[in-house]
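Limitations

Structures in this collection are predictions, not experimental determinations, and the ligand pose is part of the prediction. Treat each record accordingly. The example that follows, with manganese (II) ion as the small molecule, is included so readers can see exactly what is and is not provided: the inputs are given verbatim, and the output is the predicted complex.
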Amino acid sequence: MALERYREKRHFDKTPEPPPADVTSAKDAPLRFCVQRHHARRLHYDLRLEVDGVLKSWAVPKGPTLDPKEKRLAVHVEDHPIEYGDFEGTIPAGNYGAGSVLLWDRGTYELLGDVSAEKQLERGDFKFRLHGEKLMGEFALVKIKGSRKDSKGNEWLLIKKPDFAAKPGWDSENDLRSV
Ligand code: MN
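Predicted complex:
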């Protein structure tokens, strides 16, 4: 069960976060993505991309950027249910991820390259094009090989490709609107 870890970490009678439901999306529906600014014990942004009916998720401590010269650490975390992509609110103290969640960006994405999303994740090189309200254009998530021993192999880099949407010096903290 892809969402077991998501379920294990949470008490759904104590957090406003959604329990996994049976959400099926139309086969040809565009793939969704979202970014949540999560002001937990440590501020970070959660990037989530729909793959096979769940949201594959990475926690990005410094937030995503449109600056192609920046490489942002992105820690691969547990899959989240699709409906989490609409979640915004406060996770009460004492619960996993306690703090405020702001829906910072959302939209659709296209998978790039000629192999499936699973293959790209497996090989640690996931290429995609975002159509969000704030994030646009091509990005890659690249797994860091031989990263720190205590990292459990979860460390990736989020990289903006140089294209029409690239903006040197751009910082996610300069636009804190909820979408
Ligand atoms: Mn988070």
